[in-house]
Amino acid sequence: MKPNTVRRTVGYLWILPALLLLLVFVYYPIVENFRLSVYKWNAFQPEPKFVGLGNYERVLADPVFWTSIGNNVGYAVVSVVFQVGIALILAAVLEGVVAPRLRGFLRTIYFIPATISITIVGLLFRIIYQPDGLFNSFLALLGVHSTTAWLGERETAIWSVIAMSQWQNLGYTTMLFVVAIQRIPREFYDAAAVDGAGPVRSFFAVTVPMVREMTTLLMIVTISGAFLVFNEIMATTAGSPGNSSQVLGTWLYQSAFKNDDMGYAAVVAVVIFVITFTAALLQLGYGRLRRVEQ
Amino acid sequence: MTTATSSPAKTRMRRSRIKLTPVRGLIGLVLAALAVLVVFPLVWMAISGFKTNAELYGDPWGLPGEWRWHNYERAYEYGVIHYIGNSLVVTIGSIILVVLVSSFAAFALVRVKIPFSAPLTMLVLGGLMLSETVALVPLFRIMRGIGLYNSLFGIIILYTAFRVPFITFLIRAYMLGLPQEVYDSAVVDGCNTWQIFWRITMPLCYPIIISAAVLQALFSWNEFVFALVFIKDDELKTMPVGLMTLQSKLTTDWPVVFAGLTMSAIPMVLAFLFGQRYFVKGITEGMGK
Amino acid sequence: MKRIIGIALALALAAFAAGCGTNPDNGGSTDGGGTGELTGKISFLEKWPDPQYKVIFDKIVADYIAAHPGVEIDHQAVGDQPIKDQLRVLTSADELPDIFFAWPGDFAKKFIRGGFAADLSEYLNGTEWGDSLAESALGAYKYDGKYYGIPINMNAKVFAYSKSAFSKAGVQPPTNYEELLASCEPLKASGYTPIAFGNQYGWPAIHYITQLNAEYVAADVRNADYDPAGGAFVDPGYEKALQTFKDLIDKCSKPGSNGISHETAQAELTNGKAGMQYVEVLEFVSLTNTETVPESWLNDWDFFAFPPIAGAAGTPGAITGAPDGFLVNGKSQNIALAVDFLKFMTSKDNAALIVKDIGWPSPVAGSAELAQATPEVQKAVTMMSAAPEMAIWLDTETHAEVAQAYLAGVESLLNQDLTPAQVMDSVRAAAAKVKAENS
Fold first, then answer.
1. What is the pLDDT of residue B6?
2. Average pLDDT over residues B35-45
């Protein structure tokens, strides 16, 4: 009896560090955030004032909040098109058409931006996107004359940041698709070839269905990533001009640490929580489903 | 067997090569253009780091009139090397801590018989569904309250806490796949749990631990929100936040900023070029998430 | 019960942290503080990390420590843009330094309202130190009749211009606003961007608006509107100011200003591609920095004040500008030491050092003579002392929410997304919200 209890207690010691860290730094703050979202306070008036759902009402009535959500959605849509759709095609082309040695070289090249910190990329593109910057002179080479300040116009700012993000991440997901395609048994392609399928048809008949699992996972990861975007914006526009390139993450930060409105920020955090939590549930659910299927 | 499978594939390749030459040419062109598009901004950044302000604005496409290593020296003097050093400390520290804590937890959930292990598994892995931004405002009070504000150790703790669920998930899945026989023989040999963990489980988990380390490195090296909010002193800033500081220090001197950016990009690019195998394996395992 | 567990966990973790050999810095200090002896540790945060400025503060700190062996100073510098968030983060974390930079206006007042700024009147009223500091600069940090801030410099906005560009285009420095507008055509025709303007961070436009509001709106109306408790912003002058600004930029600058930084625009001026730029007197030092500016520019520039608008309802001849200064943390354990350090920093010798090395006009009496300030700085000082009113930066003068509404609104105005009337609508909405919270 006694040694058994000791052993049980010792057993808990293995998991104790993980639990401590999670409870103190992950679970408690998130629960606390829900509580704080019904108070109004800031750095200069540290005594929170209970306002009920007032912060929620203010957030929902704020056009900048909706601009931010819209930008996150735009981010998600474009990222899915590029980092899932185009990345899959690119991976299939690399694996199917390109000579093996060149294939490895190109994969490596495409991946490089993904290893570089977003801050570096953001500061670099700040200059590239200037009216007399590299991007406009590149357009001039193509015969398009432009003096657009890509990060300075309401219509272009967020899309320019999104484009930069595709530049950075395309190679990463392409690499993942390459691995997924390499795991497809060769026989499937041979069988398709015997049936007279060309490269395009065998792409749709074999590649797409066989990498469906990776596609679904990448879609979920890409979408929830798009709702957590922060650094990309901070390193480029910081939400300007006129809050047109705010996303939920930067709007949370600006509300908390620039507009002196912590309660408002807590509500934005709740929204981010709901969205990413749903995405993660989908992801876990999908993972379980997959394991059951196997 | 080998010849039987490889020869039809070869035929397929050869046939399509003959049939699709113009298309293949076009594809080749697109792929090459894409490679240039990807690499050129980075090369431009490195080269611009050698220019003068006037050259940077006046002649963005040209080479510098003189290769000014001085700019790189100045970036170094303005603390870039400090930032990189701090990032290394945080990255290595959090890799060690997260792998240890997660391996312990995974081991407990898989091998050690503890009551309530099912809800505990939920509790640990449930952290997967929570993101850092959400916790930002309350975390602030906590970090301050326990004196971890403005310390690299505090950042390491945070990077560990938020990644424990994910890394535990990876290692647990791997441990579940280890054969039971190994443990049985160890028990017969009289090993206690501690010895089993260090002498049997950890060595067997070596491949997944490498992958976990790569994934944690990519995370810690680039993390921005926590590093921005929880570090105050310039001497303690990690690279992603430090570079923003560098830019605000040198508002008028972009070539030096570019030199600093290039210096900061190099370690991870080199790590990738030399350890590509591990990167690819790591990010692939990571998708099992 | 849950809370107790939470606290226990936190404590356990803190113990764990301490056991691992880190040394968490809890700010503040204890050793020897409060005994009357000037010993102990203070923290000091300024906003000039750029090496050319930082060396000066480094030297002053080092000199003070050398003279006071028992004193430690934790000196940090955070850039102009990041310090706005940093100060809030530090305040929330209870880590506000003993001495910290704050712009005058509501930016400083919110620290005062929250009890985060110490009343320094007793050290200044009728003392030698108080008398040595220009009242105009001290007054920027005066609130309810009490002094809260120690000014470190004096600053104003002027147009810096290229003499060769002006002579090539055949124009003279303007003496009224009409002439300024009229100079743009000939400058353009001679191949120059008449006014270099980069508004990436929003404040460069706000400085124009500060000036134009001062031109168009009577001082008492403005002061009432800028106060968090009273902002109505119904005077038609505000819209006129926005419209005037818009017309000026459309006529005299390149499009896309929101995507260019002020510094990049400045490079255009110093590289001989633009005619003029609206700059701070404090920027003279970067305009003459031989590391970044071509030699051709060094003797080619001069400056003039914003030319007055005839018949406008505001203060004729007002100049936009305000001193930079430091507040002492009202919750500091070491207020006496902090004040003594500030006194040292604004001694005549140190003020002269600042004037000489980085060309900042000083609020300290006699320092300019001592340092033999450059002719440009002397001219600027004369200009400031002759001004009937110094208009404090609109984005630090008003409440943060009103400032953000102005910043975002003017960016949208430049992009043709909002009209002046719409910008004022959003400013009024923000002001109403602030007013409701502050009354």
1. 39
2. 96
Give the pLDDT mean for C258-272: 89
| pTM for the model | 0.87
Report the DSSP beta bridge partners of residue C158.
Answer: C279
Among the partner residues B45, B102, B137, nearest to A33 by beta-carbon distance: B137
The pLDDT, as a whole number, for residue B179 is: 86
Contact C185, C328 (CB under 8 A): no
User: What is the per-residue pLDDT for B165?
Assistant: 93
Tell whether B57 is covered by a domain.
no
**Interstrand relation of C325-328 and C99-102 (parallel, antiparallel or unpaired):** antiparallel
- In terms of domains, do B228 and B188 share one? yes
| Residue C6: predicted pLDDT | 46
The domain that holds B229 is classified in CATH as 1.10.3720.10
B125 shares its domain with B164: yes
Helix, coil or strand: residue C304 = strand
> Mean pLDDT, to the nearest integer, of A171-176?
95
Average pLDDT value for residue range C393-407: 93
Q: Roughly how many angstroms between the first and final C-alpha of chain C, as a whole number?
A: 39
Q: Which of A248, A252, A261, A44 is nearest to C430 (CA)?
A: A261
Structure tokens at A171: 């190679």
Rounded distance between C-alpha atoms, residue B97 and residue B226, angstroms = 17
Residues of C within 8 A of B148 (CB-CB) are 14, 17, 24
Domains and CATH numbers, chain A: 81-116+157-293 (1.10.3720.10)
Residues 6+ away with beta carbon under 8 Å from C284: C160, C359, C374, C376, C377, C380
A94-141 tens-digit pLDDT: 998 888 888 999 999 999 999 999 999 999 999 999 888 899 989 998
8 A C-beta contact, residue C213 and residue C314: yes
Do C83 and C119 form a contact (C-beta atoms < 8 A)?
no
Q: Where are the domains of chain C?
A: 37-154+322-390, 157-320+399-437
- Residue ranges of the alpha helices (H) in chain A? 2-22, 28-36, 54-60, 63-80, 87-97, 100-115, 118-128, 134-141, 157-182, 186-194, 199-202, 208-210, 212-226, 231-234, 248-257, 262-293
User: Which range marks the domain in which residue B148 is found?
Assistant: 69-286
Cβ atoms of residues C208 and C321 within 8 Å: no
Sign of CA dihedral A93, A97, A99, A100: positive
Q: Which residues, including other chains, have CB under 8 Å from residue A202's CB and lie 6 or more apart?
A: A189, A192, A193
Q: Give me the number of domains chain B comprises.
A: 2
What's the longest Cα–Cα distance across chain A?
A: 84
pLDDT score recorded for residue B15: 43
* Residue C411 CA from chain centroid, whole number: 20
Least confident of C46-55, C188-197, C294-303: C46-55
Which CATH architecture is the domain C157-320+399-437 placed in? 3-Layer(aba) Sandwich (3.40)
The dihedral formed by the CA atoms of C78, C80, C82 and C86, expressed in degrees to the nearest 10: 60
Q: Let me know: does C330 contact C121? Beta carbons within 8 Å.
A: no
- Contacts of residue C90, defined as CB under 8 A and 6 or more positions apart, other chains included, come to B232, C45, C96, C97, C100
- Does residue B61 lie within any of the structural domains? no
Residue C47 C-alpha, separation from nearest chain B C-alpha, in angstroms: 9
Residue B54 belongs to some domain of the structure: no
Q: Which residues contact C297 (CB under 8 A, 6 or more apart)?
A: C162, C270, C271, C272, C287
Q: Do C10 and B146 touch (CB under 8 A)?
A: yes
Mutate to test the interface with A, among B21, B80, B98, B137 (most CBs of A within 10 A): B137
* C37-154+322-390 fold: D-Maltodextrin-Binding Protein; domain 2 (3.40.190)
Across the range C329-350, mean pLDDT stands at: 94
Is the preceding peptide bond at C104 cis, omega within 30 degrees of 0?
no
| Chains A, C: CB pairs < 8 Å | 109
Is B79 within the bounds of a domain? Answer: yes
Interchain proximity B147–C26, CB inside 8 Å: yes
